[in-house]
């Protein structure tokens, strides 16, 4: 790993010397005039990841709670009751394989290659989002988030697909954290007369919060570095817009689109390597932070048992 | 239901039914509402998975033909064609990556689980592996570009393999470590008690017992590497031809740009030609099936492994 960091930084060194910190704040990317700046890309990377994180963690934590609180049994029980099949409450408890099947189904989302998600995003998500987004723009265009017309490839499409891609990470790690909460705490809360969700909100989630937060941070790291879906969906425009419908660009997509054309031009390669260094610095910090939080969270729970 | 006269609840001094929570209290209703929301969100999260799989079969399966597997990719004004060279290219590069990462990964996992399991080095290595497993795949490509493409002077299957091996390494390492740790210590003690050396114990007892778990790690890593696109874009590039030389079809040209399924999908996804877009869907279907099957085999192997 140290070698990777060294290698990339070494290859980037000519560009770092040439452009310095101005590289980080410049807004134009023009190979013809050798003017390079990656502020739009940094902005796009962070913005799309945060947006994806917002959608993804919402769903991810819901999945984790669903899987760890034995809701599946309840759900099947109630569905059967709807159809007039009344079983003894005992049958509301399903064998453990059914829950692990659902968990594996969610994790299969992570196994699908990101390029396939990109393809799916182009042909399924984009047409699907067009109508509601245009409606939002026409009726709520004064709100800066909906400020531009929906153009297809753009921030929202990309973040939407990105959210699906990071959902398994969040739900798997959060589920582990929730399952690790000692049953005694739950029982004590129920014993005091709390409802199920009062227990979840005021006892279970705070206890597992360290693990959940670690999972979200790791998912953030993954979203930052995700390339293909973004390269295909984000629109590749060097603009800084607050609107979620406008096209943008990310660091990873920039690398993916420009690297094969850089050829043997040392400065072009160096510039791209510099962008790689920036991306690496961001993701490494986020990942190390997330791994550290997870380590501390699991250590803390072990002491409580 | 028991008849009211024999109801044990009425016989007792306190009416136990008073302790049941009224369904009309706001807090109960809030709880039920949140439960409903959770259920809906969970099933909504599964919709994309089914949507992706459905679309793959819907748009990919009908166009898939046997000839797809041995023909070259079509140019813009050509009908038919296939992704034969991309399939072969993916297999070659994953094989190169596995050849690099599997020995290193297993050796590292032996070190982590057995030799220096408590040492400072091991915990640093383990932490690095965890961070590396969340490493953006495109940076592996950037690294391979710098380390292989610039050095050898051209895009090649080797460079693609090196990039993929970086992504495979932490998966192999962490899963294999887990598997080796699961080997019961009594088995090792018995082996040492019989007079075997530590190396012999390793070779004849620990590794064979941990084999299913190790293979799981390799399979998961292969599944991950087969679907990766970003690092291949500028290490292996793409090629419209077989990665074999025309003069001797048996020899592989690993020093040339090599096609891969994932890059083919990427290139064809934004094509303006219907035929190429159809090809992208068919190729996606094949790729997803390969990745999912590898994944499932890997996961089922790990559950059949030894229990402590």
Automatic annotation (TrEMBL), chain B:
It comes from the Bacteria. It is found in: Cell membrane. The chain crosses the membrane at residues 30-58, 91-115, 127-151, 157-180, 201-223, 279-298. SUPFAM superfamilies: MetI-like (SSF161098). It is a multi-pass membrane protein. GO terms for molecular function: phosphate transmembrane transporter activity. Residues 87-298 form the ABC transmembrane type-1 domain. Keywords: Cell membrane, Membrane, Phosphate transport, Transmembrane, Transmembrane helix, Transport. One of its GO terms (biological process) is phosphate ion transmembrane transport. GO terms for cellular component: plasma membrane. Belongs to the binding-protein-dependent transport system permease family. CysTW subfamily. This is Phosphate transport system permease protein PstA. The gene is pstA.
């Amino acid at each position: 790993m140290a070698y990777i960091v060294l290698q990339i930084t070494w290859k980037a060194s000519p560009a770092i010397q040439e452009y310095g910190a101005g590289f980080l704040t410049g807004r134009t990317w023009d190979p013809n005039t050798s003017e390079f700046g990656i502020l739009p890309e940094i902005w796009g990377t962070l913005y799309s990841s945060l947006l994806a994180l917002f959608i993804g963690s919402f769903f991810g934590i819901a999945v984790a709670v669903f899987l760890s609180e034995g809701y599946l049994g309840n759900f099947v029980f109630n569905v059967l009751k709807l159809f007039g099949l009344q079983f003894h409450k005992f049958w509301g408890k399903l064998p453990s394989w059914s829950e692990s099947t659902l968990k594996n189904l969610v994790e299969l989302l992570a196994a699908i290659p990101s390029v396939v998600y990109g393809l799916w995003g182009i042909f399924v998500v984009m047409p699907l989002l067009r109508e509601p987004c245009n409606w939002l723009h026409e009726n709520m265009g004064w709100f800066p988030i909906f400020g531009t017309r929906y153009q297809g490839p753009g921030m929202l499409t990309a973040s939407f697909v990105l959210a699906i891609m990071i959902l398994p990470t969040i739900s798997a790690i959060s589920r582990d954290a929730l399952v690790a909460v000692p049953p005694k705490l739950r029982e004590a809360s129920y014993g005091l007369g709390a409802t199920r969700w009062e227990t979840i909100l005021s006892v279970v989630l705070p206890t597992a919060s360290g693990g959940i937060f670690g999972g979200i941070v790791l998912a953030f790291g993954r979203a930052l570095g995700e390339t293909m879906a973004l390269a295909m969906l984000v629109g590749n425009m060097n603009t800084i817009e607050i609107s979620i419908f406008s096209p943008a660009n990310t660091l990873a997509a920039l690398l993916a689109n420009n690297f094969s054309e850089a050829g043997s031009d040392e400065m072009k390669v160096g510039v791209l390597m510099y962008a790689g260094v920036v991306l690496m610095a961001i993701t490494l910090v986020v990942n190390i932070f997330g791994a550290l939080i997870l380590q501390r969270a699991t250590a803390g729970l072990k002491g409580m048992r | 239901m028991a008849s009211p006269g024999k109801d044990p609840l009425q016989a007792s001094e306190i009416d136990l039914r008073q302790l049941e929570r009224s369904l009309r209290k706001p807090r109960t209703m809030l709880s039920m509402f949140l439960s409903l929301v959770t259920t809906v969100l969970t099933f909504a999260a599964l919709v994309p998975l089914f949507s992706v799989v459905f679309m793959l079969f819907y748009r990919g399966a009908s166009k898939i033909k046997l000839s797809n597997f041995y023909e070259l990719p079509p140019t813009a004004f050509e009908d038919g064609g296939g992704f034969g060279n991309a399939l072969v290219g993916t297999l070659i590069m994953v094989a190169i990556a596995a050849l690099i990462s599997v020995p290193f990964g297993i050796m590292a996992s032996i070190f982590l689980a057995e030799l220096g399991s408590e040492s400072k080095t091991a915990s640093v290595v383990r932490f690095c592996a965890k961070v590396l497993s969340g490493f953006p795949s495109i940076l592996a490509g950037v690294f391979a570009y710098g380390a292989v493409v610039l050095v050898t002077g051209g895009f090649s299957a080797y460079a693609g393999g090196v990039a993929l091996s970086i992504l495979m390494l932490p998966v192999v390492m962490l899963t294999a470590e887990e598997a080796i740790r699961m080997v019961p210590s009594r088995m090792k003690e018995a082996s040492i008690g019989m007079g075997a050396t530590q190396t012999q114990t390793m070779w004849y007892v620990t590794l064979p017992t941990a084999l299913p778990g190790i293979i799981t790690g390799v399979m998961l890593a292969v599944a991950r590497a087969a679907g990766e696109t970003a690092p291949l874009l500028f290490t292996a590039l793409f090629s419209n031809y077989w990665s074999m030389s025309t003069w001797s079809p048996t020899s592989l040209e690993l020093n040339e740009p090599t096609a891969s399924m994932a890059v083919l999908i990427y290139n064809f996804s934004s094509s303006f030609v219907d035929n190429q877009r159809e090809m992208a869907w068919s190729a996606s279907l094949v790729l997803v099936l390969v990745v999912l099957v590898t994944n499932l085999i890997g996961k089922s192997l790990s559950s059949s492994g030894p229990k402590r």
